[in-house]
From TrEMBL:
SUPFAM superfamilies: Spectrin repeat (SSF46966). This is SPTN4 protein. The keyword Repeat applies. The keyword Cell membrane does not apply. One of its GO terms (molecular function) is actin binding.
Amino acid sequence: VNHVQTCLEELEELAAKRRKELEDSRQLWTFFQEMEEAEAWIREKEKILAAKTCGRDLSSVMTLTNKHKTMLGELGNRRALLHQTMKKGEKILAKKSFSSVGIQEKMREVCLRWKKLEEITGLHQQRLEDALNFFQFSAETDDLVAWLQDTYRIVSSDDFGHDDYSSQALLRKHRAVVDEVEKHRATVLSLRKQLALLAPDHRQGVDVQIRVVEVEQLYGEVAEVAVLRTQWLQDALAVYRMFSEVHACEVWVDEKEQWLEKMEVPEELDEVEVVQHRFESLDQEMNSVMGRILDVNQVVQQLVDGGHPSSDEVRSCQDHLNSRY
């Protein structure tokens, strides 16, 4: 019985030792298997990153950026798994059950490849960010050019209204456009600063530099024409107001001429006093109208001196009014 008991104990000891050796072996090969899976995953991502471009327009770059963000999430998850596998390798080394050469070599190899993968990922992310900044800059520049072209068509219009009311309405609209043009001045002036912030490969391109110069020139033309249109509208408004004033003065002259032509010399003293009172009122009215006519003459002189295209018509209207008065 004692012999059998001793044999049983030896068998149990051998079984326990065998179980430990098998467990250690399982942990070792599990470790190598996980490391191989990590290497395979790294190789796959290296191939994907090597084949990836940075896009050819804003839409494609944004799509690639979103995909890259997804990959960064996968990278984080894989990093956590690799960290756990490395801990398993360290535990195996601590047990000293197997040769440490193969384990350490594998851990060092995978660590180096992982570090290289993170560097490649970081570089690709930087290229995507550079491309995104460039295409956003290009898109914003294109939008600015389109706005400037539309604005140029508006400010170069030859519609100055057909009367006082329409000219005032056009002038109000034009002043709103001028305000918008002025608001865009800072945006245009900042283009060169934005260009300087782009990656060297993008900012040193001849096309993008020419584009910035074209935008600056176009803005200068828009601003210049906007100023001219402001003056043209003000001149047109002045002309229509002058015509309106001339018309009002001539209506007054017509009324007084008709009254003077129809007036008869009164025979009664009371009637003479009434007529005399009317003449006194006429004299006051004439002084008032004279002031309005002097204002008309001043406006006409300003328009003529300014080279207004309707100078001849304005001068003729002035001469007619002065001759009638």
